Amino acid sequence: LMSCYRCAIMEIETKFRVLNERFSLQHDRNPIDSIQSRLKSPDSILDKMLRKKLPFTLEAIENNIFDIAGIRVVCSFVDDIYMLADCLLQQDDITLIERKDYIKNPKKNGYRSLHLIIEVPIFLQNTKKLVYVEVQFRTIAMDFWASLEHKLQYKKNIPESQAKFLKDELYDCAQQSAALDKRMQNIRNVIAESETKEEEKQDFLPIFLRENKG
Ligand code: 0O2
């Protein structure tokens, strides 16, 4: 079963690498900063099964735990997150099972990310198998915040007063990181607009002027 999840991760990672390659060819920049993937550990699977009061069977794991195969796609800009998610979901072998948009509706601790649970076929020796994968899309700023906040979740020996301070600090940082993402996106949009105008100007120039421009 775990090998099937590993294969599904390979499939989806390749899809993102292909999208990144094609986009960089057409637009001269990479929408993806990095891709990380992970298989949920047996301990975490067990925890989730206990939490969801599931019977300890392979069938129950396969049908109820959707994030055993997890892929995190980190982008520089928020618009690229939605563009990549749309491109992935347009592919005819991908089925969307669930979408949670914590960018438009952040969690109350400030957590932001776009989560998709998708189903992807993997082709084995004689069979085709449908496998669930969780894809998390984040900006670099969202990822920075979430990694630190995740670390804090595992610290159990922090005094109550400090825990409250850290929670408030993290919430404030989440607001600042959301504002930063917005400003960086605006800057990127202005640059893209001026590039388009420059290209349009070029298209109007006679060919000999275009060649001698430099
Ligand atoms: P790990 O260690 O990353 O595997 P569900 O799967 O629907 O039963 P849940 O928590 O409602 O459970 O799903 P959700 O909200 O889509 O979150 C799934 C994953 O998103 C989490 O996996 C985290 O990786 C990440 N995540 C969600 N909320 C937060 C948050 O507030 N802070 C941080 N840092 N990460 C978050 P796991 O299984 O909790 O952990």
Q: Secondary structure elements and their pairing?
A:
Layout: H1 2-27, E1 32-39, H2 42-51, H3 58-64, E2 69-75, H4 78-90, E3 95-101, E4 114-123, E5 128-139, H5 140-153, H6 160-204, H7 207-212
Parallel strand pairs: 2-5
Antiparallel strand pairs: 1-2, 3-4, 4-5
This protein binds ligand 0O2.
Report what the structure shows.
The chain has about 210 residues and is α+β, with helices and mostly antiparallel strands. The N and C termini lie far apart (about 60 Å). The protein has 7 helices and 5 strands, in the order αβααβαβββααα. It is flat. It has helices spanning about 1-25, 40-50, 60-65, 80-90, 140-155, 160-205, 205-210; strands at about 30-40, 70-75, 95-100, 115-125, 130-140. About 20% of the residues are buried. Strand 4 (about 115-125) and strand 5 form a beta hairpin. It has a 5-stranded mixed beta sheet. The chain binds ligand 0O2. The site of ligand 0O2 has 11 residues, from helix 5.
